[in-house]
From TrEMBL:
Residues 1-278 form the HTTM-like domain. It comes from the Bacteria. It comes from Hymenobacter arizonensis (Siccationidurans arizonensis). The chain crosses the membrane at residues 12-31, 43-62, 71-104, 116-133, 154-174, 213-233, 240-257, 263-282. The keyword Amino-acid biosynthesis does not apply. Keywords: Membrane, Transmembrane, Transmembrane helix. InterPro entries: HTTM-like, HTTM_dom, Sporulation_signal_mat. It is found in: Endomembrane system. Its main location: membrane. This is Vitamin K-dependent gamma-carboxylase.
């Protein structure tokens, strides 16, 4: 059942929506420079890209006064509603097309996190990702037919697994691409990436990359882990180990290189791999530990 992943899907929905909301607010002061009529990416190329993508009917007039600001505000509102599961799948579809239009208007400012959002959002919309962390008063909650729920369940299940497969594809083919690079083959890629001025977030970067063992170990282990993730994440005995390594990797990327969006969106996808039953076990363990350390009330 797709309900086995509803908690993780809901958590990922909140994270994805939150990142889109953050980006929209971040872009707002620079809206005209990034997306306006005279933005760094030519408006005519945007129109051509929209038509070639088959969505020419959705061409937005970014050249109009305050049009860019309005578009970002609408995107921010849609992202906020998606976070809270307001509007359900309808809002999800609207948000998907909004980020597609934004990407086609100026893809020069986007990074790997935007691609991950784009390829996983359709699966997230179809899957059962609206069951938790939602804002919907019970008195207006929609009641679905049991028959419809049974018929839709296989579709939602396929979408949940489809999202996880997409994550595996991202890591596997990223690892394959790295294996073709000379720096990754000779074990020095970490040295150069951590020392690039734009990504050198801490003074520790220089100190760490002076250690040859650290450079070689992190370079090769990154490639091996990315290749192995697509296979080991499906087995109960290895799933949490490989997910734990992924958290360490992306937190490290965030701390030492300040690549935040990509790190958080990838960590967000990990929640989907954890079943509702496993979340229940963790919740029960936390409650038991809390009871053990609870301070007795004074007599």
């Amino acid at each position: 059942m797709s309900r086995e992943f509803t908690i993780g899907l809901s958590i990922y929905r909140v994270i994805l929506g939150g990142l889109i909301l953050k980006n929209s607010i971040f872009y707002l002061p620079m809206a005209d420079a990034l997306f306006g009529g005279n933005a760094i990416y030519d408006l005519n190329l945007y129109v051509l890209d929209m038509r070639l993508s088959g969505i020419g009917a959705l061409i937005y007039p970014f050249q109009q006064p305050f049009a860019s600001q309005l578009f970002l505000l609408v995107t921010a509102v849609a992202a906020g509603c998606f976070m809270l599961a307001i509007g359900g799948r309808v809002v999800g579809v609207v948000l998907y097309f909004l980020i597609i239009i934004l990407k086609l208007r100026n893809g020069l400012i986007l990074d790997g996190s935007d691609n991950v959002m784009q390829v996983t959002l359709p699966f997230l919309i179809v899957a059962q990702s609206y069951n938790y962390f939602r804002f919907q008063p019970k008195r207006i909650a929609l009641r679905r037919s049991p028959i419809w729920s049974q018929l839709y369940q296989p579709v939602a299940t396929a979408a949940a697994y489809g999202l996880m497969v997409q994550v595996c594809f991202v890591y596997f083919f990223t690892g394959m691409e790295k294996m073709q690079g000379e720096l990754w083959q000779n074990g020095t890629a970490t040295y150069y990436t951590m020392r690039v001025e734009e990504f050198r977030a801490t003074e520790w970067n220089i100190w760490l990359t002076k250690n040859h063992f650290f450079v070689v170990l992190t370079t090769y282990s990154t490639v091996i882990w990315e290749q192995a993730f697509a296979f080991l994440v499906w087995f109960q005995r290895t799933k949490f180990f490989v997910l734990g390594l992924g958290v360490l990797l992306h937190v490290g990327i965030w701390v030492f290189m300040r690549i935040d969006n990509f790190s958080w969106i990838m960590i967000g996808t990990y929640f989907v791999f954890v079943t509702d039953t496993e979340y229940g076990v963790v919740s029960q363990w936390v409650r038991q530990r809390t009871k053990r350390v609870a301070v007795p009330e004074a007599a």
